[in-house]
Each structure stands twice: as C-alpha cells, then as structure tokens.
Amino acid sequence: MMLSEADISAIWLTLKLASTVTILLLIIGTPIAWWLARTRSWLKGPIAAIVALPLVLPPTVLGFYLLIAMGPNGAIGEFTQSIGLGTLPFTFWGLVVASIIYSMPFVIQPLQNAMEAIGQRPLEVAATLRAGPIDRFFTIVLPLAKPGFITASILGFAHTVGEFGVILMIGGNIPDETRVVSVQVYDHVESLEYAQAHSLSALLVIFSFIVLLALYWSQRKNSSASIGVMK
Amino acid sequence: MPSATDNNIHINFKLIDKNKRAYLDVDSSIPATGITAIFGHSGSGKTSLLRCIAGLEKADQGKLFINGECWQDDSLFLATHKRPIGYVFQEASLFPHLSAQKNLAYATKRADNFVSPEFYNRVIEVMGVEDILTRYPNQLSGGERQRIAIARALLIQPRLLLMDEPLAALDHERKQEILPYLERLHESFDIPILYVSHSMDEVARLADHILVLDQGKIIAEGELTEVFSRIDLPQRLEQESGVILHGKVKEKDEQWQLMRIAFAQGEIWLPDSGEILEQEVRIRILAKDVSLALNNHDDMSIVNRIEVKVAEIKSDADNAMALIRLTMGKDYLVAKLTKKSTHHLQLKVGMSIWAQIKSVAIVR
After folding, report:
1. Are B106 and A144 inside 8 Å of each other by CB?
2. Measuring CA to CA, which residue among B2, B184, B1, B194 is closest to residue B83?
3. Where are the alpha helices (DSSP H) in A39-145?
4. N or C: at which end does chain A have fewer Cβ atoms within 10 angstroms?
5. Which residues of B touch A144 (CB under 8 A)?
6. Does B54 contact chain A (CB < 8 Å)?
7. What is the pLDDT of residues B130-181, one digit of tens each?
8. ipTM entry
9. Alpha-carbon gap: A187 to the closest alpha carbon of chain B (Å)
10. Domain count of the fold of chain A
11. What pLDDT score does B237 carry?
C-alpha cells in the first residue's frame, strides 16, 4: 500500500464526515421515520417523496440547488450568516448538510420499514400497561426497531463514504476540509497517479464489501431471531 | 347521573362508520363485580366495545363511568395509559424482546400501586408460571404465553380487567388447560372482569352476568341464568339454547354411581363425576334435551322428571320447532319441541307439567 499523507488525511476526513452525518441522520431521521410510519395525514405521500428524491436525482442537480440555497443569497445561507457562521459551501459543515440530505433516504426508509413492521398491537399493549407515548417509544419502538437502526446506520455511513457528485459541487477540493477519499481518487486519476489511485480505490472496494457483508449478516441474524414479530 | 357510591360500570358508546351507520350503539349498566361476559357472534361489535372501554378506540359519542368515576364523557377522554384497566388480548401479546419475567416487570414497574412480593408471588402461583419465567415469548407455547399475558395484566393491579377472547387463538386442549386458571383468577382476585367471547361453553362456565350483542346493539343483559333462559332472542343465537342452573351436590348413590344435585326447587340425578358433597356446581341443560309430559310416568328410561309450570311459549311461523320456557321455583328450564307436540299437549301459559331431562352437562 502506498498511501500518502494526503491520502490518509482524506480517509480521516471521510470517516469523520460519514460518522457525523450518520449520527445526525439517526437523530433527525428517527422522528421523521416514526411520523411516516404512523401518520394517516395526506402529507405522508409528499413528505415520503421528498425524502426519497435523492435516490433518483443526479447528484449534480441536488448539489446545484444546495449550492444556491447555502450561498450568500440562499435561504440556508442567509440563516447561517445571520447566526454568524458565514456561508457553508466549501466547508466541512457544508458537506455535512449536503450529505444529510443526500443520504437521508438510506436512513429513513429502513427505520420506517422497521417501525411499520412493529404494528399497532405492541403499542396498544404497552398503553394498557400504563406506558405513555414517550415511554412506549423508548421501551417498545426503539428495541423492536433495532434491526432497522443497524441497517440504517450501515447504509447511511456507507452511502456517505461513497458520495462524489454532491461533494464536488458543494465542497470542491480543499485538503483537510472537503477533500474526501472519492475526490482524492479522482485527483490521483486526473494527475495520472494510477498506483495511488489503485491503493485508495482498492481500500474502498474492500471497505464496501465488508460493510455489505456485515449488513447481510445482521439482517440474517435478525430474521432468524424473528425480532419485531409478536409471538 | 352515577353517584360516587355507585357500584356499576356505565357504558354508553356509539361508533359510526363512513356511511353514517352506527355499527356500535350501546347504553348499559354492568355490575362492577364478578365476570360479565360480552357475548355475540363475530362482527357483533363486542371487541369494539371492549376497545372503547379501554380507550383504544375513540367513540364518536361515548360516556364511561366506573363506580361513579368518569373516564370519558363529552369533555373528557382519559388516554388508555391513564385508565386503571388491565387488558388481555386475543392473541398473546407479550413483548418479543423481553423474557417472560421482564414482560411481568414491565407491568410491576408501572403498576398503579406498589406490587408487594406477596401479591407478585400470588399472581405467579395462581397463573402457574413460576417455571417459565426465564424463557422468551418465542420459547413458550400458546397457552403459556396467554398465562403470562394474564399475569401481566393482573400485576398492573387494574380496577377493571378486560379480556378479549383470551382463548380464541388456542386449540381445544390449550383452552382446557387455561380455563381452570381463569376460574382460579375469578376466585382469587376481587377484580371485576369483562370477558368478550363468542363461545357459549366459556360463557356458561365462567360468567356471572352477560351482555348479548347483536349487530352492535345489546339484545339481552342480566344474570347469566336469567338471560340463558330467555326464549325471545333472535333465532341465530338459539342453536345452543339452554339454561344454566346453580345447584349443590346433596347425596351420592354408591351402588349406581350417581349423585343428586338439588336446586332451589327440584333436583336431578347425574352420573357421579367426582364432586364432593355440598360442592356447588353449575350445570347446563340444553333445550333439545328437555321433553314434556302431562303426567309423571315412571315407566320410562328417563330418570329426571321435574314438575314445572309453563311460563312462555314461542313458536315462530317459519320453523317447525317451538321453545317453551318453564319455571321451576325461581329457576328456569327451556324445552324445545315441535309445534305439533305443543299443539298435541295443548300447552298453555300457567299450566303445570312434567319436564323430562334427557341429558345434563356439568360446566363447573
């Protein structure tokens, strides 16, 4: 392996970005998924569609609009400026915001599916045992939706690691700030440093394989234990 | 308006479907003691009624008072978790991620009053679950799961226990396994129970009072023995018509292995099934097993003949059979005869006559 200091820094940045995004997405995504799993409102369809948009949009389109929104005259940009943070594009936190939106369906959908699979009954049972809504959420929904949380974390993390288009649009290519592994590979190739591109790329291939394998195993284990099914 | 000393459960619920048709419309007062069966065929609205009482379903119009305390009226709706109820669902509803013991702990932690070790042990003992506490729900049989679920509902120390067909999802053997526990539950804990069922057998065995629902409306209610002797209920409930009688074992005949059961008035001989003297029994006599005679013949094989009075005759135009309600002291019998026979015997209300009982089932 021939990893330069710049490569290592790109790897660390990627891991930091993916971890931050995954943690924030679990915090933001859980209530949204819970709402989507439970609501009978007509808004369910539109909200679900918005959450799923990044699945189908070219990353450049998403990146373009985010760039405008986070720019000095965009809604997000005006807000961040008003609270003294300046504008977000070409910063690490700009990447975090963009990645949260880009990876959102990969976190929300597994959570929503797991929560829907729980069904009404365990919650009704808990209610007849004096558990209020918050109690029910923490003692019934979270433990029963655990497989969904594992899947959501793995997918959210992996998908953020694999991001390229949106990063290029929002973050550009600033060492230690926005130059993540995928961008670094692109750089190597552009400068015809194939050997270095190889090392990083192979690392990503191995990483992705391990992640997907872990996902497969965790799902198989959970289905055999039939967690989430009332017995 | 119910007063604070009122020992009743007042229910008044109306549920309306999309076509503005009321699919549940009940207004009644149930004694807050013993087991009250809510009986009816599937689709009669009995589960909806129970869910309304639990607050799991919000009635379009609803009032609910328990012992004079309001749980629901036009301006108040107590959420399910604020109602002092216990609920046993039709299919076992244990939390799959918790062991049996932790399922019980879920209740003890949230119980309305402190759960003393004595009470805990008594519940465990009455439901016979001490040996299965460490197992997870998927390692338990259907009957075991339901016993844990009942124990869990008891540990919350409810002031009203709601049971929604707790045996319906079990096979015949499992039912027989649980029924004695339900009887012991009734004897050991002084909690009023509303027991939803479509099984005449369970109701005959367990209930003290009954509320019969048909198409969302109450068509009969009262003491079990009284309601079961009514002959004016819709035809579809009558396939199994028969009365329930409370009696006592008074005498045993060793030679013929029979025992004598005495009622308030009248008595019958039954095969001795191991009951002890003075034991109270609940027996069921189906209308089709009762025939009538004008005189007391003793030249026939039927042993049990009781003198009764004709109280009511019901013969529908669309059917060859007639139902006759007979009084025997303060108890009732019901006989099912062909209309031809009633004509032949010239039965009239108030007439004295002999009832011959071909077969009797001890339900408890």
Report:
1. no
2. B194
3. 44-56, 59-70, 75-82, 92-118, 121-128, 133-136, 142-144
4. N
5. 95-97
6. yes
7. 999 999 999 999 889 999 999 999 999 999 999 999 998 888 888 888 888 8
8. 0.83
9. 49
10. 1
11. 59
